[in-house]
């Protein structure tokens, strides 16, 4: 018996090793058809880690946890331990669930903490350095997600530990990001860190993160306690003291992820399951879809001036409502039922005039436009479970602060609060009192991890990064498929447009049709061409066949079998 088992086990181990992605030689795979399971994420090594976990018996939730942990190592610009995120899952037994692990304002935060003595916002304080960080939620979220998985955390975290300890070859985009922000990594940190070296980073250089590996090991051993108490929490608090931040060990110990009822609605016969507050994403998506549902988009055609104009006007109204009403539901009363009521949405768009922009209220212009912050991953498994996760540090590499001795970056999520009600944030978004800072409150988000069901079964598992553009990108992904019948690859790669009530501009990607741009300008829309944004990860299941697509805009990559 023994002599038979040993070669079999060796063969299995070798097969499994051969299927794993080599961290020093890998490339992105943008599309695949799979029979059993698939992952789409921002990095080939992270997608590979998720696929490996499913080969080893994990389900889609286990894989999503492993992908997030791997992203915290190989995609430090947005993958994280020091940030937060949302998981939306549809389990094969019909349960739908969301887990909210959004960051929280520290106990010593206060409403006006980013205003100068004249009452003006000091943007650098909410965006850069120690004071910009909220209490991280990711690790609590991953531990809470385990209720829906089956493998131990030590197994899910193992690929991330190896990648941090032995290193991996960085991509061209990563090298560019690290070089671009080198001065900030030096200026904003109190201790040396793995992201700064004497010579510029090059594609293929090995990034080793030993401090991060040690933190991951503490989490592997003690779960949430390995992060929110003991050595890691002590290192966070010490970093704060050195750098003038306010997160304490008490804040860390008090952090809890929350299981929330998903926002669920119908659009043209499909069931959309998405993230409720404190994300504005689900409500915004429902509002936008509701305002175009009865409009004959398919007759006017994909990217026709008529279809795009109607969608822009839906976006304008949804973003105006976001600014006025939305905030953390544990702190403010939000009229969600009224805002998403079908009749309300019909009335909201009733003043729309074909061929003419509806002017937005005049408010000071918004901030700079960034493209790749945040990251999304989609996973389906062989049992019929589907998981959609969006996770973030907010800006690229968050606050740029690496926790000394713990090796992970902290978020700059405090900027997602209305730092001064009425003034725009990083994404030019304006908010009111509903999203004002208060200790223990979660800042409003745009992250919109989404699952679409067709006849009660997962059909699309999707989401994207992109700050304020997240909701409008998702809006287009759903409309492109459900209304225009577009195939999955064309859908992800289709050029996007974006409008958010304020600023007044419509942004388009370079490849957007010139004739439609000219037609919109003739109608009176100020149109601006922006650098590519959004990185949609889409898995679609059609007649039992799984299609996985990674966005062309980044290092995004799919894996599966
Ligand atoms: N920090 C981007 C978002 O949560 O929407």
From TrEMBL:
Arranged from A to Z, the UniProt key words for this protein are: Acyltransferase, Glutathione biosynthesis, Hydrolase, Signal, Transferase, Zymogen
Q: Does the keyword Transferase apply?
A: yes
Hey, what's the signal peptide range on this chain?
1-18
Catalytic reaction equation(s): glutathione + H2O = L-cysteinylglycine + L-glutamate; an N-terminal (5-L-glutamyl)-[peptide] + an alpha-amino acid = 5-L-glutamyl amino acid + an N-terminal L-alpha-aminoacyl-[peptide]; an S-substituted glutathione + H2O = an S-substituted L-cysteinylglycine + L-glutamate
Example of a GO MF term: leukotriene C4 gamma-glutamyl transferase activity
* Keyword Membrane (UniProt): no
Q: What EC number(s) is this enzyme filed under?
A: 2.3.2.2, 3.4.19.13
Q: Which Pfam families match?
A: G_glu_transpept
Q: Which domain of life is it from?
A: Bacteria
Q: In which pathway does it act?
A: Sulfur metabolism; glutathione metabolism
Gene3D superfamilies for the chain: 1.10.246.130, 3.60.20.40
PTM remark? Cleaved by autocatalysis into a large and a small subunit.
Q: How does it assemble?
A: This enzyme consists of two polypeptide chains, which are synthesized in precursor form from a single polypeptide.
Protein family per UniProt: Belongs to the gamma-glutamyltransferase family.
**What name goes with this protein?**
Glutathione hydrolase proenzyme
> Gene encoding this polypeptide?
ggt
């Amino acid at each position: 018996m023994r002599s038979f088992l040993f070669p079999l086990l060796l063969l299995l181990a070798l097969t499994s090793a051969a299927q794993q992605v080599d961290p020093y030689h890998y490339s992105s795979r943008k599309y695949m058809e799979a029979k059993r399971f698939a992952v789409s994420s921002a990095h080939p090594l992270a997608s590979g880690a998720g696929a490996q976990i499913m080969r080893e018996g994990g389900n889609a939730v286990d894989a999503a946890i492993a992908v997030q942990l791997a992203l915290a190592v190989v995609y430090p610009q947005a993958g994280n331990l020091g940030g937060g995120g949302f998981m939306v899952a549809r389990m094969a037994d019909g349960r739908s669930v969301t887990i909210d692990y959004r960051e929280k304002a520290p106990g010593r935060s206060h409403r006006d903490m980013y205003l100068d003595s004249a009452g003006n916002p000091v943007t650098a304080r909410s965006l850069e350095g120690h004071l910009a960080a909220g209490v991280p939620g990711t690790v609590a979220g991953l531990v809470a997600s385990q209720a829906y998985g089956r493998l131990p955390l030590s197994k899910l975290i193992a690929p991330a530990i190896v990648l941090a300890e032995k290193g991996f070859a960085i991509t061209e985009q990563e090298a560019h990001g690290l070089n671009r922000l080198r001065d900030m990594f030096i200026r904003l940190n109190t201790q040396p860190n793995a992201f700064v070296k004497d010579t510029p980073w090059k594609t293929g250089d090995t990034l080793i993160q030993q401090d991060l590996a040690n933190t991951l090991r503490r989490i592997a051993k003690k779960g949430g306690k390995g992060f929110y108490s003991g050595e890691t929490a002590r290192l966070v608090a010490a970093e704060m003291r050195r750098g003038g931040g306010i997160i304490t060990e008490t804040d860390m110990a008090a952090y809890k992820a929350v299981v929330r009822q998903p926002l669920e609605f119908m659009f043209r016969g499909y069931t959309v399951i998405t993230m409720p507050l404190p994300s504005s994403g689900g409500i915004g998506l429902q509002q936008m879809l509701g305002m175009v549902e009865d409009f004959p988009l398919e007759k006017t055609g994909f990217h026709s001036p008529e279809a795009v104009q109607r969608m822009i006007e839906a976006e304008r109204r949804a973003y105006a409502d976001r600014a006025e009403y939305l905030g953390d539901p544990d702190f403010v009363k939000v009229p969600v039922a009224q805002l998403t009521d079908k009749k309300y949405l019909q009335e909201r768009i009733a003043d729309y005039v074909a061929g003419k922009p509806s002017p937005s209220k005049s408010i000071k212009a918004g901030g700079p436009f960034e493209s790749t912050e945040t990251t999304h991953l989609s996973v389906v498994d062989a049992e019929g479970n589907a998981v959609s996760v969006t996770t973030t540090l907010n800006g690229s590499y968050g606050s740029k602060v690496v926790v000394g001795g713990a090796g992970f970056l902290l978020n700059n999520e405090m900027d997602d609060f209305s730092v001064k009600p009425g003034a725009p944030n990083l994404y030019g978004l304006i908010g009111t009192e509903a999203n004002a800072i208060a200790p223990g409150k979660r800042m409003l988000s745009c992250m919109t991890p989404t699952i679409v069901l067709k006849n009660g079964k997962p059909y699309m598992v999707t989401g994207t990064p992109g700050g304020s553009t997240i909701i409008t990108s998702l809006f287009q992904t759903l409309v492109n498929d459900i209304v225009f019948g577009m195939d999955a690859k064309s859908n992800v790669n289709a050029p996007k447009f974006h409008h958010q009530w304020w600023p007044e501009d419509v942004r388009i990607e370079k490849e957007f049709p010139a004739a439609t741009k000219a037609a919109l300008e003739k109608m009176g829309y100020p149109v601006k061409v922006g650098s590519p944004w959004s990185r949609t990860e889409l898995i679609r299941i059609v007649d039992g066949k799984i299609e996985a697509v990674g966005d062309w805009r980044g290092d995004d990559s799919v894996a599966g079998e």
